[in-house]
Specification:
The complex is a heterodimer of chains A (275) and B (71). Chain A is α/β, with parallel strands linked by helices and 275 residues long. Chain A has one domain: Rossmann fold. Classes of the chains: A alpha/beta (275), B alpha+beta (71). Chains A and B meet through helix 2 and helix 9 of A and helix 1 and helix 2 of B. Bound molecules: thiamine diphosphate and iron/sulfur cluster (3 copies). The site of one iron/sulfur cluster has 13 residues of chain B, from helix 1. Chain B: InterPro entries: 4Fe4S_Fe-S-bd, 4Fe4S_Fe_S_CS, Fe-S_Ferredoxin. Chain B: Keywords: 4Fe-4S, Iron, Iron-sulfur, Metal-binding.
């Protein structure tokens, strides 16, 4: 029921600007449901976004929100978290925003293990600017800047996050909405850098250029091509070939950045009071 | 209003519906249909199993289904 989560939306700003069938709204709903499930204080929760279709989400969410500049959402979020570590800080970002122009901020926030919840809306393309290929476009996929098919290899962004030091990494999609809510919820519980890749569907640019059919067809594609890691662990190799693994991929503990920073501050306070 | 008449469990906010087709394509029991603009209509409300597939996948928050499983 929308009524149960309505308090988290700026309903006077709805309907949103996203195209018919764009899955961004589905993913936003999962984020909000995860926040509600975790019982986070709405006044102590900040949502930061960059620039892109997905990043427009902050305009519709009834929290303290920051709609920042392209690629810099994680940098702004780092500032918010360091200034007041009590806040729950979320980042909403697109595949271009996070992995292209914002790639450096992303890997270093993961390396620092700063307590942010980053949700990447991966629609495999630059939606807002009209369908240019991104570092997450599959090899062979078409974009306005790849009319003959993309010759590059995409990032495996979850593996990149793990390699860079993120302590919680998960992947979900816009068809399996309960799973998406659950993995975002589990990421909130992690004290450190939590990263969720949410497979999104852009029926207008990615879908049309790559003959993916209707918005409903794109969701069905996700249903048929995603396999939860738990299920995959029990299946023979041939049954998982070509599947995209979803669920929690990595969860470890490591010192969190703002806690380490606080320790330094306390040390100096102690030294001063002893002097 | 008589309590004996069962209200359909589905509430639709047509002002927010963009006619994307997701709900009526995914609805397993064909409860939902489309008008000439492609916006959602209730065609066979009695067949609704309250599975909430429509509610969960409407990107525009335009459908709510009361009762049934917790979404
Ligand atoms: C510094 C800067 N460079 C380029 C742009 C143009 N621009 C706006 S959105 C965008 C990419 C959007 O793609 P993505 O982050 O994947 O989000 P989506 O729109 O697909 O959700 C670009 C390149 C910009 N706004 N600012
Ligand atoms: S261009 Fe694509 S990503 Fe952007 S709002 Fe439209 S469908 Fe969504
Ligand atoms: S899924 Fe939502 S926006 Fe799309 S047709 Fe159904 S009610 Fe309308
Ligand atoms: S709840 Fe299920 S059965 Fe009822 S209208 Fe929605 S999709 Fe159809």
């Amino acid at each position: 029921m929308f009524a149960e989560i309505e308090q988290y939306f700026r309903t006077n700003r709805l309907p949103h600007i996203w195209c018919p069938g764009c899955s961004n709204g589905i993913i936003v709903k999962s984020i909000v449901e995860a926040i509600q499930k975790a019982g986070l204080d709405q006044d102590k929760t900040v949502i930061v976004s960059g620039i892109g279709c997905s990043s427009r989400a902050t305009g519709y969410l009834n929290f303290d929100t920051l709609h920042t500049t392209h690629g810099r959402a994680i940098a702004f979020a780092t500032g918010v978290k360091v200034a007041n570590p009590e806040l729950n800080v979320f980042v909403i970002t697109g595949d271009g925003d996070c992995t292209s122009i914002g790639g450096n901020h992303f890997i270093h926030a993961a390396r620092r293990n700063i307590d942010l919840n980053v949700i990447l809306f991966n629609n495999n393309i630059y939606g807002m600017t009209g369908g240019q290929y991104s570092p997450m476009s599959p090899t062979g996929a078409k974009g306005t800047t790849a009319p003959y098919g993309n010759i590059e290899r995409p990032f495996d962004i979850c593996n990149l996050a793990i390699g860079a030091g993120a302590t919680y990494v998960a992947r979900g999609n816009s068809f399996h909405t309960h799973q998406l809510t659950d993995i975002i919820h589990a990421g909130i519980a992690n004290k450190g850098f939590s990263f969720v890749e949410a497979l999104a569907a852009c029926p207008i640019y990615y879908g049309r250029k790559n003959k993916q059919g209707s918005a409903a067809d794109m969701l069905k594609w996700q249903k048929d091509h995603c396999l939860s890691k738990e299920a995959a662990d029990r299946l023979p190799l041939e049954k998982k070939e070509g599947k995209i693994l979803t669920g929690v991929l990595h969860n470890v503990s490591a010192p969190e950045y703002t806690e380490q920073y606080d320790k330094i501050i306390s040390r100096f306070k102690e030294a001063n009071s002893n002097a | 209003m008589s309590s004996a008449v069962e209200q359909p469990p589905i509430q639709i906010n047509l002002a927010w519906c963009k006619g994307c087709g997701i709900c009526y394509t995914l609805c397993p029991t064909k409860v939902l249909g489309a008008d000439e603009l492609g916006k959602v209509t209730l065609t066979q409300p009695k067949k609704c199993t309250k599975c909430k597939i429509c509610e969960n996948h409407c990107p525009d928050f335009a459908i709510s289904v009361s009762g049934g499983k917790k979404s």
